[in-house]
Specification:
It comes from Ancylostoma caninum. This is SCP domain-containing protein. InterPro entries: CAP_sf. With about 80 residues, this protein is mainly α. It has one domain: 3-Layer(aba) Sandwich (Pathogenesis-related Protein p14a). The protein has 3 helices and no strands. Helix 1 packs across helix 3.
Length: about 80
């Protein structure tokens, strides 16, 4: 992808109402809980622990995907039900 097109797309994605700080917090919390599940430290509904995950991958930021998800949610539930 050409650098200028990528820059335009990334700028567009950043204008969706979510700050980098919120993105990072979401990512950190997701990966914290992902790690607990992967290590077998997450409790299950039966009072025990969920099995370990052998190859669970960490979540990474994908701004283009984020923009698509936010657009879909705004159409589905409306902007008043969303985070900004």
């Amino acid at each position: 992808m050409q650098t200028s097109l990528l820059r335009i797309l990334m700028t567009r994605c950043r204008e969706n109402g979510m700050t980098d700080e919120v993105r990072q917090k979401f990512l950190d919390m997701h990966n914290y809980y992902r790690s607990k599940v992967a290590k077998g430290l997450a409790k299950d509904g039966a009072g025990g622990y969920a099995p370990k995950a052998a190859r669970m991958k960490k979540m990474v930021r994908m701004l283009l995907l984020e923009d698509s998800v936010i657009s879909h949610l705004q159409r589905s539930v409306g902007p008043k039900c969303f985070f900004y």
